[in-house]
Amino acid sequence: MQVKVYTDGSRNDSDCTGSGIYIKTHNKELKIQRRNPAFCSVFRSELIAIDEGLDSLSSFSCSNEIWILTDSRGSIQHLANWHRVRDNIGMNILNKLKSLSVSYRIHLQWIPSHVNIEGNEIADALAKAGADDVSVPSAPLTYLELFSRAKCRNKTIWLIPPVHHWYKGSRPCGCLSVDCNRRY
């Protein structure tokens, strides 16, 4: 018996994002929608959906195969470069995949969006409903995600202005010096 996990992320006109997860076996299905934190990107929403889908697998009895089906090529490419993943959600996903791979064959597969693949259409509808949900999101963004978001919107304004003199350096190869010994 195989388990199929369809995931999707969505943003509405109010810049709110949501994640949708649809898990299906031959005799059981589970639908999950969630609202994501303010300023969350669609990319992060896709990763949140994959992470939540992996968490939800504990309620399913899997015999040998788990298929994670997403319409986000970016998410798959991000996870494929596992040695460069530094974000919390990406690390959570990789750790869960590692522990699940001991007992199951896991397939992470890209599928095209909006071509009437039933599971993907359900996950898409759940993600849109999650974005429109008025409930309070549960996972706040980390400092680096907020910083990155603020920096992307306006290249000249920093979220927290830098105060150290080395931020103002105008030449390449600048370095930091710390007055302490190697042990510290």
From TrEMBL:
Pfam families: RNase_H. InterPro entries: RNase_H-like, RNaseH-like_sf, RNaseH_domain, RNaseH_sf. One of its GO terms (molecular function) is nucleic acid binding. It comes from the Eukaryota. Residues 1-132 form the RNase H type-1 domain. This is RNase H type-1 domain-containing protein. It comes from Araneus ventricosus (Orbweaver spider). The lineage of its organism: Eukaryota, Metazoa, Ecdysozoa, Arthropoda, Chelicerata.
